[in-house]
Amino acid sequence: MSYFHAFWVGGLICALVQILLDRTKLMPGRVMVLLVCSGAILSAAGLYRPLVEFAGAGASVPLLGFGHLLWEGIRKAIDESGFIGLFMGGFTSSAVGISAALIFSYLASLMFKPKMKG
């Protein structure tokens, strides 16, 4: 059942974002920033954690989940290190995911021949 919940919650998030992209004149980069910031704000308000516990990867994989991850890291680092945790918490919580994305994208560029659109 957890797969089902992950599928429909993740699909609903993606569908709502696609509607936002289609119905507004917002550029995709701005929508992505909006999603990360919204995830952090919802997490700070205590609203996103129950969704992650309910839907698992369906809520933690989209960009809203990245904002949630940053907030959780900042909150934990502030509890452990005080004010300085505000600046280091997001980096430590997301370092593995960002590093993996960079490494795998570099490997993909070695395996395939990337071309500029033009």
Query: What is the end-to-end distance?
Result: 45 Å
- Largest sheet descriptor: none
Give me the count of strands: 0
Helix content: over 70%
The domain tally reads 1
Backbone structural class: mainly alpha
- The whole-number mean of residue pLDDT values reads 90
Number of helices: 6
Structure notes:
- It is a single chain.
- The chain has helices at 2-23, 28-44, 48-55, 57-60, 63-81, 85-111.
- With 118 residues, the protein is mainly alpha-helical.
- The chain has one domain (2-111).
Quickly list its features.
118 residues
Helix-strand blueprint:
Blueprint: H1 2-23, H2 28-44, H3 48-55, H4 57-60, H5 63-81, H6 85-111
Compact summary:
The protein is mainly α.
